[in-house]
Amino acid sequence: MKKNVPKKILITGGAGFIGSHVVRRFVTRYSNYHIFNFDALTYAGNLENLKDIEQSTNYTFVKGDITDADFVNDLFARNRFDGLIHLAAESHVDRSIVDPLAFVRTNVFGTVNLLNASLQTFKENAGFLFYHISTDEVYGSLGKEGFFTEKTAYDPNSPYSASKASSDHFVRAYGETYKLPYIISNCSNNYGPNQFPEKLIPLFINNIIQNKALPVYGDGNYTRDWLFVKDHAKAIDLIFHQGKKGETYNVGGFNEWKNIELARLLCRLMDKKLDREAGTSEKLITFVKDRPGHDLRYAIDASKINQELGWEPSVTFEEGLELTIDWYFDNKEWLNNVTSGDYLEYYKKQYQV
Ligand code: NAD
Ligand code: TYD
């Protein structure tokens, strides 16, 4: 066991997609930690994601909003946290185009609230660590060649990535100005169980099940680097425990797919799963109006985390997609629950259906 191992760990956004996998990993692996999951339960947060661990004695759920400074300060005053893993965010690019201020509020203002509260904790507990979870989208768009490294200049294009870039800068600035110990990691596109079906992979799985159109933006030649969510959670665990303070780590799958090719792969896998004749689901692919400011390509060079911390993805894309598809089939009730209400209105507006 390492020296100065934190005991009370605050995880924000733990009821969301990636956060729920991180919370589960920490609650089940580290019985010497008490994990506090701080989440506002927006449309993207769902306690059903954590049903299997909610009774654990080393787990506490705190419903609250990171934009509420009084609430945040009070929570930090009542608990002398040893570490914070910050995942709470508005996370969907299309929503950020419709309502940028919601992204400024949570991703920028909310992060600064957490930083301010952390300063007081750091005064009392020199071992405190602020670990900020971010995205490769802060680097902007790549052309056909090359990779994002930790040295790539920030060049965000969407309101979402601009808000995440801003929050990354605030974290660094608090490190420089107030010496707050921090680490930042920037990860590529995640997929896997519990992802809200507005992002590409779960949206298409859900639409194929329901025989609905698969809206491919523009010509579909946009490229993303996909990583299975549990491999991201594993990277977060390693970085939190072994990462160097004041450093950035890029996390990615070395797994680039053009959207249209990924859509076709999903269709083939789903035809098999649904016992449909080959080619049936592909007929659902529909090219729609492009996303404004659409980044052409993201691709992460993950050699630093690989060489320094020994991290590498544990599943291939094929294995990860099989696990993901199986999970959505086994959890139709979850899918029905999350796709009612606010989501439906949003979906109808987005695709004019
Ligand atoms: P998500 O949208 O699934 O979950 C976000 C969670 O944050 C939800 O549980 C929501 O209730 C909570 N939340 C939102 N606003 C809040 C507020 N004001 N106060 C408290 N809680 C609030 O997001 P995700 O996909 O799990 O992403 C988690 C983090 O990882 C984000 O910071 C995101 O930028 C980053 N990230 C995501 C990806 C990806 O592919 N999904 C890739 C790289 C980085
Ligand atoms: P998304 O899952 O929203 O992640 P991000 O925009 O953060 O990368 O989108 C992944 C890619 O898929 C992106 O190039 C936009 C595209 N896309 C579609 O073509 N159709 C869709 O319905 C969605 C949601 C995304």
In short:
The protein contains twelve helices and twelve strands. It has helices at 17-29, 69-78, 93-98, 100-124, 159-178, 200-209, 229-242, 259-273, 303-309, 317-330, 332-338, 342-351; strands at 8-12, 34-39, 59-63, 83-86, 129-135, 182-187, 189-191, 214-217, 223-228, 248-251, 256-258, 285-288.
Structural write-up:
The protein is of the alpha/beta class. The protein has helices spanning 17-29, 69-78, 93-98, 100-124, 159-178, 200-209, 229-242, 259-273, 303-309, 317-330, 332-338, 342-351; strands spanning 8-12, 34-39, 59-63, 83-86, 129-135, 182-187, 189-191, 214-217, 223-228, 248-251, 256-258, 285-288. The strands form three sheets. A seven-stranded parallel β-sheet has the order 3-2-1-4-5-6-10, with helices on both faces. A three-stranded mixed β-sheet has the order 7-9-11. Mean pLDDT is 95; it is low at 1-6. The structure holds nicotinamide-adenine-dinucleotide (NAD) and thymidine-5'-diphosphate (TYD). Thymidine-5'-diphosphate is lined by residues 93, 189, 199-200, 203, 215-217, 222, 224, 259, 291. Residues 12-13, 15-19, 39-42, 44-45, 65-67, 87-91, 106, 110, 133-135, 164, 187, 189-190, 196 line the site of nicotinamide-adenine-dinucleotide.
